[in-house]
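Fresh eyes needed here. Kindly weigh in on this sequence plus structure tokens:
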Amino acid sequence: MRVADIMTPNPVTITQRNAIRTAINLMREGGFRRLPVVDRGRLVGIITDRDLRRAANSPYVVREKWYDNFVLDHIEVGACMTPDPLTIGPDAPVVEAARLMRDHKIGGLPVVRDGQLVGVVTETDLMDFLIALLEKETQLAQ
């Protein structure tokens, strides 16, 4: 089985110039924990919910609401993304994606072909794949 068989194709993306509020809204609306950052279809980074929480500061620090709004609207994604993230190709075996994610302790990998983003493979995709395998094995054993 290949990464292309389980990945989410054509993922929602963001650019470096977008405000972090845009990234937060896209993640909330789509139920995502990460967004690939692209420039004309080429992957240049990745931003995660954790990156955004760090950028928005600690909730334990008391600030004025206007300050939070300023940060969310004026800090760009490029300032807090991870540049040049680890990637995988669509023809790579699923087990390779699982090992990379485990070894690097990350929850998702952008899938790139010839420099262009074509998908994302996440922990959820891997779990869905595992569940399908186990269900198939259970049916064969009956």
